[in-house]
Design brief:
Blueprint: E1 19-24, E2 43-46, H1 55-64, E3 68-74, H2 84-93, E4 96-102, E5 109-117, E6 125-129, E7 135-137, H3 161-171, E8 177-178, H4 180-193, H5 200-212, E9 216-219, E10 222-225
Parallel strand pairs: 2-3
Antiparallel strand pairs: 1-3, 1-4, 4-5, 5-6, 6-7, 8-10, 9-10
Helix pairs in contact: 3-4
């Protein structure tokens, strides 16, 4: 899951979105006027990313310009997953995904925790917006469930290479699979047989994750297992 940055006008107000996500990905907006320029730029912030953007182009920018890109994704109210295809793709590529949620006990406070982070984790913290419209740490704020980490919306990322190989061996036990629905059903049953049960939405995310990692390929209208992938 990710957090959403919201512009806060002057005065004591809180972010407008109850659950949002801050994503620190290798991604950005592909509109020509939003393209990062060469020079001393090191940080590129995007308030939103359209569904038509190309994740590969954003990855290219981070490498070409050696920059860090920060963007914002809103979450589905039903399952706390990032919205849309772009949300799934960005979370798969992100270095860090933070989830920002409004406190259930204090409407002036927002809680921040790491939903997914590749570096050292940090303890959850809370902030509020002061009278000048600026965020500040909510000193003395007590979490209702201290130290609780946001539920990981991408649990398949925590699996080891060996665990993925074991599950994929079952998924492709009968060879290549034709049809998206057939493949997703095979993914769900194969991973469940190895003790990793996922909802239909998470199976779709898993499919994208496996494709991005080169663990599967889609050729001639068939899903094919690639045992030579590098995890």
């Amino acid at each position: 899951s990710a957090t959403s940055s919201t512009d806060v006008p002057h005065g004591r107000q809180t972010p407008r979105s109850k659950n949002t996500a801050t994503c620190f990905p290798t991604a950005g907006n592909t509109h020509k006027n939003s393209r990062p320029k060469s020079g001393r730029l090191s940080f590129y912030g995007l308030p939103a990313i359209a569904d038509g953007c190309t994740i590969g182009k954003l990855m290219e920018w981070t490498d070409k310009f050696q920059i860090h890109i920060h963007t914002v994704l809103h979450l589905n109210k039903s399952d706390d997953n990032a919205r849309g295809h772009v949300g799934t793709e960005l979370n798969n590529k992100a270095e860090t995904v933070l989830q920002v949620s409004r406190s259930k006990t204090d409407d002036t406070v927002s809680e921040v925790c790491a939903a997914m982070i590749r570096a050292a984790e940090f303890d959850p913290f809370a902030f509020r917006v002061n009278d000048y419209g600026l965020p500040e740490i909510a000193s003395g704020y007590v979490f209702t469930e201290p130290g609780k980490k946001a539920k990981d919306p991408y649990p398949y990322k925590e699996l080891t290479e060996e665990q993925h190989r074991e599950a994929l061996a079952l998924v492709f036990a009968n060879g290549p699979i034709k049809g998206c629905r057939n493949f997703e059903a095979a993914l769900k049953s194969g991973y469940a047989a190895c003790g990793h049960s996922y909802s239909n939405n998470k199976v779709k995310g898993l499919k994208t994750f496996l494709d991005n990692k080169g663990m599967i390929r889609y050729e001639n209208r068939e899903y094919i297992y690639n045992p030579d992938f590098y995890y």
